[in-house]
Amino acid sequence: MRYVLVILPSLLVGCIAGMWLGYESAQIPPLQQTMPESAQARSCESVREFNVLQATREGALAFACESVGAKHCSGQLAFIPNQRNIEFFDDQRVRVAQGQCFVFDGVHRYTNREGRERTVPIAWIRNR
Predict the structure, then answer these.
(1) Which among 46, 31, 70, 30 is positioned nearest to 123, based on CA atoms?
(2) Residue from 127, 99, 109 nearest 42 by CA
(3) CA–CA distance from 14 to each of 6, 11, 62, 120 (Å)?
(4) How many other CB atoms are found less than 10 A from the CB of residue 32?
């Protein structure tokens, strides 16, 4: 009986640790997307900064900021795809570098927490 009380908790802890370690090593890298030709032909938007609402494997849902460095961003909600080896995280500020701009081209569909399907524009980062 004493052996069962010692072995059973050890097996349980080992299984839990193995599942946790297995989950960590099985994380999928973010998808890198290539800007379509149609986005290259679009004119630059005036927005220069977005605030990430939620990061996903494919990119980020983000609110446009009215001005660079604005305290709160509540402009257009858009999807910024992973491109140029940029990975996003929640509450990150995404600002285009000098000589770059955002262009809207295409739509991204997602399901929100309430189960409703939503559609937002895709904001690509491109050189001017």
Answers:
(1) 46
(2) 127
(3) 13, 5, 40, 45
(4) 14
Domains of the chain with CATH codes: 37-127 (2.40.50)
Torsion of CA 76, 47, 69, 125, to 10 degrees: 100
Q: What's the predicted TM-score (pTM) here?
A: 0.71
Residue 89 token pair: 């995280």
Q: How far apart are CA 97 and CA 36, in angstroms?
A: 20
Torsion, Cα of 72, 46, 100, 109 (10° steps) = 70
Each residue of 88-114: pLDDT tens digit? 999 999 999 999 999 999 999 999 889
